[in-house]
Amino acid sequence: MSQSPSDRTERPPGRRTSQPELLRHSAMRWLAHHLLDRREGGVHRAAPAAGGSPISGHKHLTDQSAAVLALADNAPEELPIALQGLQALLDRDGRPGFSEVADRSWRVRPEGRARTLRHQFHAATALLVGSRFTADPVARVRAVDLLNRCLGTCRDGAFPGALSEDWKRTGDDAPSPLTAAAALRALAIADALGESDVDTEQLPRMATALGRAARELPTPGGEPRIALALAHAARLLESAEHADAAHRTMAVTVRHFTSREGASGISGGDAAHLLLAGAVLRSRGHDDCGATAVSRAAIDRLADRRHGGFHTVPGQAGDASAVKYAQVQSVLAGALCAASALPTSHQGWPVEGARDADE
Fold first, then answer.
1. Mean local confidence (pLDDT), 133-155
2. Residues with Cβ < 8 Å from 117, sequence gap 6 or more?
3. Are 202 and 148 in contact (CB under 8 A)?
4. What percent of the chain has pLDDT above 70?
5. Which of 314, 308, 319 is nearest to 23 (CA)?
6. How far apart are CA 155 and CA 82, in angstroms?
7. Of 49, 50, 121, 335, whose Cβ has the fewest other Cβ atoms within 10 Å?
């Protein structure tokens, strides 16, 4: 049987493959073999954990975006199939943005017409990354335009959760910290790509508002996506103040996941964001509060060494009814790749008082 592109790993002769490389390539193989839709394009949402035909159902924008970002770094030969799915969800009637749910043949579902801002940020970022691989100037322009449209909804550093299909009505007026986190991640990726046409004017206010929201979160132990976003903000702004906010949020989050209540339940998505947040902090010379060790241990527990890929939550091994999700394979493979590419620095800014996360 011939190898799929995602089976092949380019590495210098004589260098052994590291454990993170083995795990991320296992996830990409599983995604390519079981969830890429080679007939209609894009990725299916899920398949049985042991492999086999995808579970029939709708296609979601979040899955297409995550697959594009992961395949761009890990298996670019498979990227056109994922990009086909992402582009199939671009609004066909001239409205900005992406539809968010469709059937297998990309007919938009009624529930997929609203614009959830964090999903639009994620998709625009994926389209921007994809346009660099395909050298598609039209896709780049659409991606930048959508990013700037999303950023234009920011008021005093905060974002609404969702808007109507025509972008004229707010579907959720409450400020959404997760939307702000998605915005900061989008700005970080655009910066890494050298994309100068994305509007960064609101960046300082976004970071400050998100740091304030992080202190007010009602959850028992922080939020890895917010910790990652604040770490990105600290890097982009080269600000000790924002590095301090990132460090404090990370300390609370890690403390939760190492507590009796949280230690056994780290999901694939949480582990991925925690790993990346730790890597970003370490790349600027800061202590990661144990995030790298905690997330790698969680990822190791989620790895399915019999069938490949990752389970969604601990304890699914041996469960005949368990399924594996495209988004989990993508975000974990992407995080393992990105984290390994960030060098550890010893020249960061001081993080005064950041050890005591209860202050």
1. 95
2. 150, 153, 159, 160, 161, 162, 163, 176, 179, 182
3. no
4. 85
5. 308
6. 33
7. 50
pLDDT, one tens digit per residue, over 107-132 is 999 888 889 999 999 999 999 999 99
Which residues share a beta bridge with 60?
101
Backbone angles phi, psi at 274, to 5 degrees: -65, -40
Look at residues 137, 200, 205, 199 and name the one whose alpha carbon lies nearest to residue 175: 205
Tens of pLDDT, residue by residue over 56-106, are: 789 999 999 999 999 998 899 999 999 999 999 999 888 899 999 999 889
The span from the first CA to the last CA of the chain, in angstroms, equals 59
Evaluate the CA torsion angle 89, 91, 97, 102 in order and state its sign. negative
Tokens representing 19 are 């454990």
Residue where the block lists tokens 């579907």: 171
pLDDT in tens, 13-36: 555 556 888 998 999 999 999 999
Model confidence, pTM:
0.87
Tokens of 229: 């976003």
Write the CA distances from 351 to 232, 240, 248, 276, integer angstroms.
Answer: 15, 7, 9, 19
Both tokens of 352, joined, read 């005064």
Using DSSP, state whether 36 is helix, strand or coil.
Answer: strand
Token duo for residue 213:
């929201």
> Which residue, 71, 22, 45, 52, is CA-closest to 331?
71
With beta carbons less than 8 A apart as the criterion, state whether 159 and 175 touch: yes
Collapsing DSSP to helix, strand or coil, 163 comes out as: strand
H-assigned helices in the chain:
19-34, 61-74, 79-88, 117-134, 137-151, 177-192, 203-216, 224-237, 240-257, 268-283, 291-302, 326-341
